[in-house]
Design brief:
By secondary structure, this protein is an alpha/beta fold. It is built from 17 helices and nine strands. A hairpin with a 2-residue loop joins strand 5 and strand 6. Helix 5 crosses helix 9. The longest helix is centred in the last third of the chain and has 20 residues. The chain starts with 7 loop residues before the first helix and ends in a 7-residue tail after the last helix.
Length: 369
Amino acid sequence: MMSDKLSLPVILQAHGISRRKFLTFCGSLATLMALPESMVPAIAAALEKAQRPSVIWLSFQECTGCTESLTRSHSPTLESLILNAISLDYHHTLQAASGEAAEAARLAAMRQFYGKYLLVVDGSIPTGDGGVYSTIAGISNLDMLQETAKGAAAIVAVGTCAAFGGLPHAHPNPTGAVAVSDIIRDKPIINISGCPPIPVVITGVLAHYLTFGAIPELDALGRPKAFYGESIHDRCYRRPFYDQGKFAKTFDDEGARNGWCLFELGCKGPTTFNACATTKWNQGTSFPIESGHGCLGCSEPNFWDAGSFYQALSTPLTPVGRAAAVAAAAGIVGGAAIAMHNRHTKAAAESGHQTVTVKDLEKPPGEEK
């Protein structure tokens, strides 16, 4: 079960993955990580030389959706093989060992790779009543996290539960659920939020660590900027309809059939940062908005307590509605003015390290911030 020194090329070759396909994957990683094409050979070389780092994966108060997201596929993908390229020395759900043997494997990995292993956590940590609401082998999640984190080189909090507390943290939060970062303060933590998170984002972060030996650049919420640097609204293929003031009013009206913006049906894309609109799901097949449903905002903190999933972020005749009416009257000139204003607002916020909200986007052109 310990690391066996197999390099990634050996693993890929054993699974029938050609070098061309491997380089294509490296090119995709470079694009996702906002790196120039010239970095592709460097990424490939680094991955080829990388030895299998030890990874201890702890699943706490969660639904197993994060692990399901990563492992469920009809055939092995390069993303899943990247996961295989690490030495997954402990995982509650995937490991064959159980009972005392399983815990012995965790302790052995901690001793052998002290200060070097990656700790991956999915699920929130219940802290109420001493953490009695979730235990493994008689050890509370709280105690197991604190014990295992001591020897970790870095921690990857996978899923919104681990990153921000998620659904267990929702009001009234009877178990006292908190995020990993609420407990561990002295280790670098990478938050990969989402309910569940996008598989390629998980493997992309692991590939970044294998390539550069360091954690990627993070945003203010501890998420990799390469994947969470833009809102879903910014990358959504329905964005032009938003700028033109064309919104679906119901899920089966003409606007919905024409693929118009789902903003008025409660879509949280403008306030949600993730790569759903670009990487998509099921090997790039689709994502919720492309399937006709608005974004729920699941990769943001407190998304479950943020109000109805089907209530628009603004009332019908908001400044956006007024701007849309102007755009309808003035045609493409009005729409272009709104788009230019939104881009200006976003650029100004980015330069000031601020978050662009729907309220900001709704301010009509010319209004002072």
